[in-house]
Amino acid sequence: MRNIATIVLLLFVIGACKSQSQKDAVLESSEDQGGFPFVLPKEKPNRKMSAAMERIYTDYEAPQPQHNELFSQFKYTELKGFDYNGGDGTITRRDPSKTIIHNGKYYVWYTYRNTSTPPRGADKSSDTVPSSDWDLSEIWYATSVDGFTWEEQGVAIKRPEKPTVGWRSVTTTDILEWEGKYYLYYQGFMEASGKRGDDCPVAVSYAESPEGPWTPYNKIVIPNGGEGEWDQYSIHDPYPLVHDGKVYIYYKSDFGEKPDKVRMQGLAIADNPLGPFTKHPLNPVITSGHETSLFPFRKGVAALVYKDGPEHNTIQYAEDWVNFEIASITELMPYAAAPHVPDAFTNTKDGRGITWGLAHFISLGGKDQFHSKLVRFDCDLSLDLDDPEMKNHRVNHKPDVYYSQGLSKKQMQRLESGSLEK
Ligand code: AAL
User: Fold this and answer.
1) How do 75-78 and 294-298 pair as beta strands?
2) CA 133 to ligand 1 center in whole angstroms
3) Which residues in 115-137 are b (16+ Cβ under 10 Å) and which e?
4) Cis-peptide, bond into residue 339, ω within 30° of zero
5) What was the pLDDT predicted at 419?
6) DSSP class of residue 348?
7) In terms of C-beta density within 10 A (0-12 exposed, 13-18 middle, 19 or more buried), how is residue 322 classed?
8) For residue 316, how far is the Cα from the chain centroid?
9) Are 255 and 230 in contact (CB under 8 A)?
């Protein structure tokens, strides 16, 4: 027994020496490789490098953002054509869909709330008083010839009669074109959001034309997960794309207990738009972000991962449409980005990327005037555009941008009551 222990100890010492000597060898050999070159090599140089240097050559499309096709800044433009009742909180437009082109016009669908009062919270909600900004809502649509000035066309999806899925509110929609027909997926609420949580499954309606009429399927197509599962309560932001001849729908779910609510994204796949959808066994597939926003890119799919989570403010890429890696880190990303994705439904094996889309700004209006507005964003995440202004990675934001992120009253009290040391 003692011999065995001696042998094990010996082996351990030898191993430790060996890894240290290997490190020393690396260091020695790296010591005589000279300093890192003044001009950053575009390709990975054949030399020993630190973890950070290894990363810019292995994890990202290119070692510098300006050459990274999956890095971009985002520029914002206020839209024309939408009235918000003076911003009094009774009208909201939010969570836009991807835009599509039909008969030479862009089409977009979005959550539309027009209520007698602004949102008042779950406890004060009623048949006419909304609990949240997306409660008691319908799905409306608008068209545009340039993507900047929009003409509202009216309702596309109404709230169905109780107890059909969506009777309380139909929201957060996205469009799919499949075999010449159109499908709108949306969150179907059957109680006021905020009662237990923001709980809902996904429903769908279909039409021969983007102008409708839309026929509700009146069945849940992406159900909530089983008890105790991450997506047991909320299936949000259904985002369809076509890949491998199938319908791929990415969605978000809120899980975990307050105050540490977690938002992650999953994937459900079906052979046809009305399902059945099978949830991917590796779900969740994206650990961060809020609303879903993706586009085919080369053989794979890229995702805009903005607020919430350990990898927020990143653009990610999955060659296999399942296993996402960080492709770049950026800033001021669009809320609920709904890009114009020309090859979203073409089953492409060579995704060309995106250059613009719609998004929303939320929490607008003063106290008790909560509402959201649609906005346009532009970017260069396209293999067919080369806009150096969008590839700038040291944008100087005006001081007001920073001051608008001022200390809260509670933080000021802490500082005022604290000692200088703290
Ligand atoms: C949005 C989306 C979903 C949520 C709510 C309205 O940002 O994630 O649609 O339910 O917030």
Assistant:
1) unpaired
2) 9
3) beebbbebeebeeebbbbbbbbb
4) no
5) 73
6) -
7) middle
8) 10
9) yes
Distance 350 CA to ligand 1 centre (A): 31
Asked if 330 and 313 touch (Cβ cutoff 8 Å), the reply is yes
CB within 8 A of 343, min separation 6: which ones? 296, 351, 352
- Report DSSP letters for 262-280, one per residue: EEEEEEEEESSTT---EE-
User: What separation in Å is there between the alpha carbon of 335 and the centre of ligand 1?
Assistant: 11
The DSSP element (H or E) to which 297 belongs, if any, is strand 294-298
Cα separations in angstroms, 411 against 402, 407, 414, 416, 418: 16, 6, 5, 9, 10
- For ligand 1, atom 8, the nearest C-alpha belongs to 291
Question: Which residue's entry shows tokens 């929490």?
Answer: 363
Type of residue numbered 416: E
Q: Say how far apart CA 269 and CA 278 lie, in whole Å.
A: 5
Q: Which residues line ligand 1 (CB under 6 A)?
A: 95, 134, 171-172, 187, 198, 236-237, 252, 290-291, 336
Residue with tokens 């009290």: 413
Q: What is the pLDDT of residues 154-211, one digit of tens each?
A: 999 999 999 999 999 999 999 999 999 999 999 999 999 999 999 999 999 999 999 9
pLDDT for residue 30? 67
Q: What is the DSSP letter of 146?
A: S
Query: Counting atoms of ligand 1 from 1, which one is nearest the CA of 234?
Result: 10
Residues 256-311: pLDDT tens digits?
Answer: 998 889 999 999 999 999 999 999 999 999 999 999 999 999 999 999 999 999 99
Q: Tokens 């975990």 label which residue?
A: 256
**Quick check: helix, strand or coil at residue 118?**
coil
CA 111 to ligand 1 center in whole angstroms? 10
Q: How far out from the chain centre does Cα 138 lie?
A: 22
According to DSSP, the residues that pair with 254 across neighbouring strands are: 263
Per residue in 124-134, pLDDT (tens digit) is: 999 999 999 99
Closest Cα partner for 234 from 223, 218, 221? 223
| Backbone dihedral angles phi then psi of residue 305, each to the nearest 5 degrees | -115, 95
Nearest residue to 39 (alpha-carbon basis) of 23, 63, 55: 63
DSSP string, 64-78: SGGG-TT----EEEE
Residues 6+ apart with CB under 8 A from 71: 60, 61, 65, 315, 327, 328, 330, 391, 393
